């Protein structure tokens, strides 16, 4: 069966997303392939679809059990034979996978990289006929990446042993990681490489300066009550206190971090996958492999560690393509903490320098003065036009020539020999006679009191933006004291000017614009469709989006299909799902839908469906013969379905399907229908 046919009939899509088709074809053709695609860009389809086209078994190496089980469940729901060998399997599940492998019916076998260390696994994979290796989250092979998994280093050896093509997928874009993937997985031989555009236009980007951050997060969640969301926190303790605060505010919320017992973590993952409208306050331990497509928002209560981490974490929102929103809070303490993490890390000096560069890029995004999406995508070497719907496009910031106050701040740091942080420097600039200022004699400095044109909050914003421009860095050896970088010297000497945003604390409280999923007119129908989905999901004990994603339900609510044929044209409604759930959702939209024979239901959305209807009409006219006096005779629905799918038949072909007597009565008329006469 062709890729296009499988795309429609199994996965329910009429067309590939941008960039998918070329990747799918390369994998089908057996080329070693590396695809760097944005989170939510449809990576899974790029190995699942080729697995169905190619002969043999495709082994998928994936880092998280929850992700593997989720994808297997989704594939089976779509009618695909898939299984996973994980430590979380029951004995019965493992036996079923082995039986399917031995019978030659399994098409996709998921396993964790750690299983490759088990004796005999490569030999088993060769024996069962593995013909393709797919590697999800391929950046885990990078030894300096925060997601490094040592057993990923065994995959290259497995590829050589099986002598089969390998397709690697990741959303991490930097060249350093790509080079490491090519070296470790492909022995340095460049694979067919696809670097897809990184724009996720359905995600609204917003940053805000911390100003009562717990209240900011609670307000953001309150405006999106009932929607699934993730709040990323910098510490384990904060996940617990913030989850409690969300619950007290009336939300369904739980916490997640790496210090929890394994069973508690699994329970949190299961609840998040299955429950609508649940919020998880989590560290970054929660995330890689979360394949829930209807996460409507992601908030960062603390600044992420790098621009790649930020991109990957916000990318967990809106994977179904429907509108999603983000909010990232940040402040000077975040920046200092992230710098300290880098400087106290075990990475070699060149790696720490690269990490500082990544953090600087994120700070540049946080302090951007024009379209945020342009700033983000320029980091990934793309040159987009302004998006028109990030927070800075919604409400352009007010900027000012900040050369004078920046020079004042740099001078205060220099005159105190760069041994103090922003708080003490602000006291000097404001002329505050604190004990610390008096003890050190800093009231006698030329910079004492020169900054009274700005208040304490404004100076905090100025220092924060100076660090965002990498003019100053906290020095761990000096307990976070701010030291100038070479970038600051031209400004200090009066050789360069600088523009900053006005105190962004004033605008932080308004928050980003709230986007609705559908119009007010369609909202009640969308709610009813979600209720039906929830009921079906609970009955089957599967996550709601396994039935249909938010995006599919939104399209149903907006287009309101009134027949199964129209329902089949909705994105995400494949043949198997149409058969399983089409009538139930049609009844929500159209009331009591007429009963449709199962054989006709299988043809919904295909040309053969309308041919079936015409054959049935002709049969009704000829049931008692051409003049209406013969003994009644009719074909079964199964026979009509077979006839409807014949290509260029003649009377002998019809006789083989219908039998001689039925072919004699209906054959000529059926041929007229099939030929379009």
Radius of gyration: 30 Å
Shape: elongated
Structural class: alpha/beta
Q: Specify the CATH homologous superfamily of the largest domain.
A: P-loop containing nucleotide triphosphate hydrolases
> Strand order across the biggest sheet?
3-4-2-5-6-1-7
Task: Please report the first level of CATH classification, the CATH class of the largest domain.
Answer: Alpha Beta
**Whole-number mean pLDDT:** 86
Structure description:
The strands form four sheets. The protein has a seven-stranded parallel sheet with strand order 3-4-2-5-6-1-7, sandwiched between helices. Strands 8, 9, 10, 11, 12, 13 and 14 form a seven-stranded parallel sheet that branches. It has a two-stranded antiparallel ribbon with strand order 15-18. Helix 31 crosses helix 32. About 1% of the residues have low confidence. The longest helix has 18 residues. The chain has 677 residues and is an alpha/beta fold. Helix content is 47%, strand content 11%. The relative contact order is 0.08. The protein contains 32 helices and 18 strands. It has five domains: 193 residues, Rossmann fold; 192 residues, 3-Layer(aba) Sandwich (Rossmann fold), CATH 3.40.50; 105 residues, Arc Repressor Mutant, subunit A (Orthogonal Bundle), CATH 1.10.10; 73 residues, HRDC domain (DNA polymerase, domain 1), CATH 1.10.150; 68 residues.
List keywords for this structure.
677 residues; alpha/beta; Rossmann fold; Arc Repressor Mutant, subunit A; 5 domains; seven-stranded parallel sheet; 32 helices; 18 strands; 11% strand; elongated
Question: How would you briefly describe this protein structure?
Answer:
The chain is of the alpha/beta class.
